[in-house]
């Protein structure tokens, strides 16, 4: 539907070849073996239960963090961005960039997709604008982050995850394997902007696994899996815990926590707005990922 100009097909949908998958997982595995033994000790803002949950399980669940209306506004704003950066009746592409944002298409979209947003898997780099920026400047969120990361905090990555009907889940992984940084941990904030259920592809965590070192991540061998998907295979996941969330619930989690998500077997979209935070001054090596954008949200700022 979106892959032609007039009647001329100018780009084909192509699966990722094995060499590219291997190359990607080799890169990710340069991080294998790193550990993060950081524990929160002195807190100013979080409750004892939140502190215990972070230290023992590697995550903090905050129910009803925002109102449903706020989630609806975010969901609408994302679709406006998609429409503005994907050329109408334009050439098929696996990714679109525009206005500082990057949108990635599903490798295997549902045959029932009728609109471009039914085919998008993720929209990156949206945290410096509008409602996406407003969210990360909220005092309650920054306070929780301060207790984990200290007083100087950056947001370096954001992605809105569409998880359309039929979309596959992401296999078991640890986010820090994707972050070749000089310190840890980083913190993910996963905001459910729709309900997240067993059927529509909720996140699944392995409590306590943030205390593990970074494991080897092998290529996701499912034919047609999305670019960048890798999988931990050398661990026991029998204690997996599905995080079924209501719209507006927030999950903060440690970047060493093993997690995955289920496939979306429902008929509706499961959406989440996901941010990643680091201590200001974190070094990312010589070449930063094109999906990263570092902005200060609290404390001394990037240039101080
Ligand atoms: O939301 C999902 O389906 C997967 C998200 C995830 O694993 C991640 O953001 O690291």
Number of strands: 16
**Major sheet summary line:** 9 strands, antiparallel
Calculate the mean pLDDT score and round it.
92
Secondary-structure class: alpha+beta
- Residues in β-strands, percent: 15-25%
Structure, explained:
With 304 residues, the chain is of the alpha+beta class. The protein has one domain (14-298): Sandwich (Jelly Rolls). It contains five helices and 16 strands. Residues 1-10 have low confidence and may be disordered. Bound molecules: 2-oxoglutaric acid. Residues 161, 163, 169-170, 175, 201, 203, 259, 261, 272, 274 line the site of 2-oxoglutaric acid (AKG).
Jot down its keywords:
single chain, 304 residues, alpha+beta, Jelly Rolls, nine-stranded antiparallel sheet, three-stranded antiparallel sheet, disordered N terminus, binds 2-oxoglutaric acid
Q: What's the gist of this structure?
A:
By secondary structure, this protein is α+β, with helices and mostly antiparallel strands.
SSE layout and pairing:
Blueprint: E1 4-5, E2 8-9, H1 18-28, H2 48-57, E3 59-62, H3 68-85, E4 95-98, E5 101-105, E6 120-124, H4 130-136, H5 139-149, E7 153-161, E8 187-192, E9 203-205, E10 218-219, E11 230-231, E12 241-243, E13 250-254, E14 259-261, E15 272-279, E16 295-298
Antiparallel strand pairs: 1-2, 3-13, 4-5, 5-6, 6-7, 7-15, 7-16, 8-13, 8-15, 9-12, 9-14, 10-11
Bound molecules: 2-oxoglutaric acid.
